[in-house]
Amino acid sequence: MTNQLLEDRSAAGTPANDSAPRSTGAKPPSRRKRAAWLHRDETVGAWILLAPYTVLFLVAAAIPIGYAFVISMQKAPTLVNPKSGFGGFDSFVTVVSDYRFWSTFVNIFTLMAIWLPIMIIGIVALALLIHASPGRFGGAMRFVYYIPGALGGIANFVLWVYLIDPVNSPIAFLWQGMGASTYKEVITPGNMPFILTAMLFFQGVGTWIVVVNGGLNGISDEVMEAAKLDGANAWQLAWHVKLPLIRPWVGYAALMNLAYGFQLFLEPYLLRQISSGSVVAEWAPTQLGYAFAFTNRNFPAAAALSIILLVITLAIGLVIVTRSGLFGDERVRTEKAPKKSRAERRAEAKKEQFA
Amino acid sequence: MSATREEHRTVGSSRWNAGRITRIVVMVIVAAAFLLPIIGFIALAFGSQENIENGTSGFLNLAGISWDNIVYSWNQITGFGPGDGGLFQQWMLNSVIVAVGGAALALIAAVPAGYAFARLRFRFRKTFLMATLLAMVMPNTVLVIPIFLEVNAINAVGQLWPVAVIMGFFPFGVYLSYIHFMTTMPHELVEAARIDGLGEIRTFFLIGLPISKQAVALVAFFSFVANWTNFFLPLALLTSSQQNKTISIGIQELIGASPLFNATVAAGLDVKLYLPQLALATVISMIPLLAMFIGAQRFLVRGQTIGAVKG
Question: What ipTM does this complex have?
Answer without folding.
Answer: 0.86
